[in-house]
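Q&A log
Question type: sequence-to-structure
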Amino acid sequence: MKKIISVLIIILSVTFVLAGCFEVKPTSSGDVNIQTEPEVVSNDTFHGYSFDEWKKMVKDYYGKYANDVICKFDEKNNFTVDVASKYEVFAQFVFDDETGYAKDINSGLEIDFINGKTINVIKNIDTMFTDNICLGIASITDENEEATINKYCSNRASFDSITRLVLDNGTEYIDKFLIIPKDENVTFDIYSVKLTDEGTIEPEFEVDKDMNNPILFTCDDYESTMPHYGIKLKANGFEDFIPLSFSGYDGSLALSGHESEVIDLTIYE
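Response status: OK
Response body:
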């Protein structure tokens, strides 16, 4: 009898121990799911930063486009990061042990997430900007797209990797602007614009803000020289607002009055 009681005590003890390792929850259908303890947060680091710090840097770089960031070491002990939107993984990076730079395995794009900048999207950027010029804008058409890529981008993959900001309503004709800041000290916002009673063009609604990487901005085709959008430029304490519009004379970008800080990079053929 004592042996039977001892066995029962052991069985009950094991049962209570196991019960503490699992949480039983009813589902909405009344079924019961057994869930293990939450996953332990990784203590792994790369280049002096924890996985959580890397996730934050990647999300800061991509902003609202990065819904999920997955950090891990692969079978070769390379540090890798996958970046996903709500719908798909859109970037897969392998990191350089020495520089800490990330290289997309599909596009070849290199990014310095620590400093929040792209390494090789735009080529010859040091010679593109002279004196006080701190922002470049190129109007891109079907006719000049390839020439624009060849002149300003490292390759087609680099051009395709540039962040897109799309504000068209599915119309047949659209306008595209490649906007390139000089360096990390230059940021810009994009606004819709309004025409005041005094005949001046002013910002109205904010579209996106505090961007400091090249972007490809797409919007509905301008049916007249009246701008729909504009760029608020901020550089080293200086601010300016540049309406995006075209000249009624020759169709070129209308940057009159802003030539000291903005350069027209459009290739006219």
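Response note: Confidence is low (pLDDT under 50) at residues 16-40.
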